[in-house]
Amino acid sequence: MARRAQPLTAAPGIGAAGFLAALILGTLATVAWRAEAGVGLTVADWAALRFTVVQAGLSALLSVGLAVFVARALARLRFAGRRALIALLGVPFILPVIVAVLGLLQVFGRGGWISDLLGLWGLPPVRIYGLHGVVLAHVFLNLPLATRLILQGWQEVPAERFRLAAQLRFGPWAMFRLIEAPMLRQVVPGALAVVFAICLSSFAVALTLGGGPRATTIELAIYQSFRFEFNLGRAALLSGMQIALTATAAMVALRLARGTGFDGGMDRPLQRWDGRSATARAIDAAWIGLAAAFLILPLAAIATSGLAHLPGLPQLVWRAAAVSLAVAGVSMVLSLMIALPMAGAVALGRHGLIEVAGMLGLAASPLVIGTGLFILLRPFADPAAMALPVTALVNAVMALPFALRILVPRAREVVERHGRLALSLGMGRWAFLRLVFLPAMRAQISFAAGLAMALSMGDLGVIALFAGAETATLPLEIYRLMGAYRMDAAAGGALLLLVLSVGCFWVLDRGGRWHAEA
Amino acid sequence: MKHLAFAAGIFGATAAFGQAPELTVYTYDSFVAEWGPGPQVEAAFEEECGCDLKLVGVEDGAALLARVRLEGEHTNADVVLGLDNNLTAAAGETGLFVPHGVTADLDLPVAWDDPVFLPYDWGWFAFVHDKTFDAPTSLKALADSDATILIQDPRSSTPGLGLLMWVRAAYGDDAPAIWEGLADNIVTVTKGWSEAYGLFLEGEADMVLSYTTSPAYHLIAEADDSKTTAVFDEGHYLQIEVAAKLATTDQPELADAFLRFMISDRFQAIIPTTNWMYPAVMPEGGLPDGFDTLAKLGKSLLLTSEEAAALRDQALAEWRAALSH
Q: CB atoms < 10 A from the CB of A239, how many?
């Protein structure tokens, strides 16, 4: 069969996917080759595996469990600021983990607000280190995501159903049994799986709030055998464990997180007649208030304590901020250079290899890629000199699944809508790319760029593995300040990081939409 | 062409400026802290050497060794300062360090003749607590008590490794049982000494693993006599902190000069009131006032460096197993 003429070529996309697959599978193979099979897993390794699964399970159950109520309240209650609150739920996605941890420490830590409050009644302060601290931070970071996923489920229930339910005078129980429960049955497993998979590869949270062998995730154990003992064999062995775990979880999550199956309504504006009693409204308001307080208080804590210490920040912090900006910039460009050709190739109908490569990105763990790259590159170069380039590359790979999700649908649309016309005009591939494809994708490209840059800004993962004493990104510098008990400077640095992350995202995202057609 | 000459002039000047040789010393965080020995040591050595001494705070001793192994022959370090007697055998095996050739009359509680690793201070590990706290009187009693403690990870920190060897030296093969008992006393295990001590000062636990000399810091630097150390019946484990020259150094003479300076009176006089340890060579002025108030210990425990190296992996596995329940 003759191949149809195309306005673009898929070759660069296939090349990019090949590069990605080679990077991920190559580092994996290196790790497997280096792993000391004879060593076997010790009691402590099993404990790390158990802790990883237990904390991820608890985090998923709690995040999603709470999210069901918060999402229900948000779906039923209309109030001023509802839109802003839902938008705010998107912030933790680009919130640097170290900033979240510092904020949580200021609210829930021993010297924090909650402990101070408890002290007024003579109660002992709360402890945040260990399993409950790790779970608390994960719930903080994932409750918004879970709420959005479930809220989406609620919003996909056709308006006609609510109308019918109101006409039939459904009580709360009937409402739950006939409308809410079937929807939740479809949405909740996917949300659970997604949060579980995210928490499995938790590193920064366990690094800062975990403590000792009792609260060590596998990712943290990889870091420890690397940085504390320089035992590459053990690091590799643990990496193998981590990959098996995340790959399985990612597969399950992808399978479960499919769209819901309500038959379409007529897309009329959603109007709700249930949940109008005073009690129901009060309960909804309480859920929303609690969730908002839980999410906003730690951020407010960072803003207030950080602001005072921003002017007096040590030179080191500013230098680290500049390093972070550069790394995030490079990472963003790399991410687009891989994602754009891939999106183009998918739009041309070449899914197979590309989607497999994109999938690999979901299952890959940054510390595993980092370990593999380290083993590969060490004979040739100074590890400290590789720290920043490797961090930029790994961060780009980590942002890739998100970038693809943003770029692919639009790329398909553009090729479908303008492809044939371009061909009939005899437009060359380069001209199509320059005059049609890229301009039409501007909003999506800048959204993906903003996301990639913000994620890289806040990342504390592979940099901790490689960084020499004199190179640090801002998140790592904040972590070091925390370790040295310079909490004031750490808080100031955290506010700076927060502003930079959100700022990068906002500027890029807005910049792209300026004068854009869509 | 003026601007060219100008530019050349600038470059010439920076090149000349950069000609002062640089000696890079990797050490632990608390050594380079503002209140640590770092700033004074740097000023004092730079007066003598006509060089630029760069003290780089890496991590606590054990992770410091891992760092140097990780960097291997690419490392920028000329000298590593902050390993201890439990690590010297393992460090020696890496072949990364070379003999110092310095002869010194050391005032250590034990004989020391290691040709590669040169001591600069020493102390006894001990748990520090508030005087108001009724502390247990032995490791065993501590394990049986419900006192809360903060310790350091033996894989990254020399005090953490010291406690591992302390329990081993005192209880031999019964060490795992002691660790089982200690597991529920431990609030958290930190990466380094600074984190644990910081958490203790914030009130996170009753006691913290540190040194018998730590209360001197509060007494002398802060005029606060509220801190003391628990004296344990089993005896206290000794730490001797050492430095060594790297084989890959591009400044071997400067590195030797630094090691000689390290055991000179000037450096040693800085140690007691900045690193809060006993000096390896007693300075002329003796110990500062306040050190006489510190705990007097009946019995020292010590494993040889070879014993410590041989026991390390097994002791570590036992420790991790006991604490991961």
A: 30
Residue A383: which of B26, B74, B190 has the nearest Cβ? B74
Q: Are B164 and B303 within one domain?
A: yes
Does A47 sit within 8 Å of B67, measured CB to CB? Answer: no
Q: Write the pLDDT tens digit of every residue in A124-148.
A: 777 788 898 999 999 999 999 899 8
Which chain B residues are within 8 Å of A48, Cβ to Cβ?
Answer: 324
Q: Which CATH number fits domain A1-34+310-518: 1.10.443.10, 1.10.10.10, 1.10.3720.10, 1.10.150.120?
A: 1.10.3720.10
Which chain A residues have a beta carbon less than 8 Å from that of B65? 230
Backbone angles phi and psi of A229, in degrees to 5: -115, -10
* Crossing angle of the two packed helices A383-424 and A442-458, in degrees rounded to 10: 170
Is B16 a member of any domain? no
- Distance CA(A365)–CA(A363), nearest Å, equals 6
Say how many C-beta atoms besides its own lie within 10 A of residue A510's C-beta: 12
B115 shares its domain with B204: no
Q: Which one has a higher pLDDT value, B178 or A346?
A: B178
The segment with the largest mean pLDDT, out of A250-259, A381-390, A484-493, B104-113, is B104-113
Sign of the torsion formed by the C-alpha atoms of B123, B127, B129 and B132: negative
B188 contacts A212? CB cut-off 8 A? yes
Residue B116 lies in a domain: yes
pLDDT at A473 over 90: yes
The verdict on B211 touching A (C-beta cutoff 8 Å) is: no
Q: Which one-letter DSSP state was computed for residue A180?
A: I
Q: Cβ separation of A213 and B319 shorter than 8 Å?
A: yes
pLDDT for B168 beyond 80 = yes
- Write down the ipTM of this complex: 0.81
Of A127, A211, A224, the CB nearest to B155: A224
Q: Is A119 on the interface with B (CB under 8 A)?
A: no
Are B188 and A216 inside 8 Å of each other by CB? no
With tokens 């080679």, the residue in question is A22
Is the CB of A224 less than 8 angstroms away from the CB of B156? yes
| Domain coverage including residue B319 | 123-238+296-323
Residue pairs spanning A and B at CB distance below 8 A: 99
- The reported pTM is 0.85
Q: Are residues B109 and B192 in the same domain?
A: no
Which of A228, A378, A390, A482 best probes binding to B when mutated, by most B CB atoms within 10 angstroms?
Answer: A228
CA distance B205 to chain A (A): 11
CATH of the domain at B163: 3.40.190.10
pLDDT digits (tens, 9 = 90+) for B185-223: 998 888 888 889 988 988 888 999 999 999 999 998 888
For chain B, how many structural domains are there in total? 2
Give yes or no: residues B205 and B319 share one domain.
yes
- Report the residue of B94, B206, B319, B324 to disrupt the A interface, i.e. the one with the largest count of A CBs within 10 Å: B324
A383–B70 CB contact, under 8 Å: yes
Kindly report the nearest CA distance between residue B192 and chain A, in angstroms: 8
The reply to whether B96 and B135 lie within a common domain is no
Structural domain contains residue B7: no
Tell me whether residue A12 is exposed, middle or buried, using C-beta atoms within 10 angstroms of its C-beta: 0 to 12, 13 to 18, 19 or more. middle
Does the residue B11 lie in any domain?
A: no
Q: Which chain A residues touch B56 with a CB distance below 8 Å?
A: 469-470
Pair B318, B200 in one domain: yes
Closest approach of chain A CAs to the CA of B319, in angstroms?
9
Q: Are B254 and B319 in a shared domain? A: no
Q: Provide the pLDDT for residue B2.
A: 45
Percent pLDDT > 70 in chain A is: 92
Mean pLDDT along residues A453-482:
87
CB contact under 8 A, B195 and A485: yes
Chain A nearest CA to B189, separation (Å): 4
| Whether B300 and B186 share a structural domain | yes
Burial call A162-197: b when 16+ CB within 10 Å, e when fewer: bbebeeeebeeeebeeebbeebbebbbbbbbbbbbb
What six digits make up the tokens of A13?
């996309």
